[in-house]
Amino acid sequence: MFTGIVTAIGTIRRLAPIGAGQDMRVAIATPPGWLEGVAIGASICCSGCCLTVVTLADDLFEVEISAESLSRTTLGTWAEGTRINLERSLRMGDEMGGHVVSGHVDGVAEILSVMPENGSHRWTFRLPPGLSRFVAEKGSITVDGVSLTVNAADETTFGVNLIPHTTEVTALGALRPGGRVNIEIDMLARYVARLRQFEGMGNERRGAAA
Q1: Which residues are the signal sequence here (predicted)?
Q2: 37 in a domain, yes or no?
Q3: pTM of the model
């Protein structure tokens, strides 16, 4: 479990196909000391995707990514030198600075525009089909592992405002219109939608029984 507060920017150092070439092993370099206390098997959120540490060095760790994850996220576009957002898993007693993030990517969104707006920039994204009902104005959303507040939403798009600090301390600042990002919807929205689905099914059964 994570909070969407990025604590480091990692750099892709190596990529090697595994699993008959369908899966991928990736080596990720981190800032000095960032991996202190991390153990083999730990979970790290890598640009929004929860991945398991399989090897460790001083300032480098390796993960293995399945073909499923490569096809459903932006991880399949990684190359040597790509900079990614990193967050270590939440521990009991840690500050909840963002919102509850699982690291399970729901889809990939396209960056439509980045426009100056007072002291920040308004970023507008096109959502993949089926996710717009989970995104609400002033709700939370995770973009490439970063917890953000939705400032506008319609049937196909949503907008957020990024202050300079956010673009400086995350890899979002390197993105441009036309780029693609991993999206995770708010967990609360997911369960509310599921509850409403079962309520609707219950109403149908009661109607049929009557």
Answers
A1: none
A2: yes
A3: 0.90
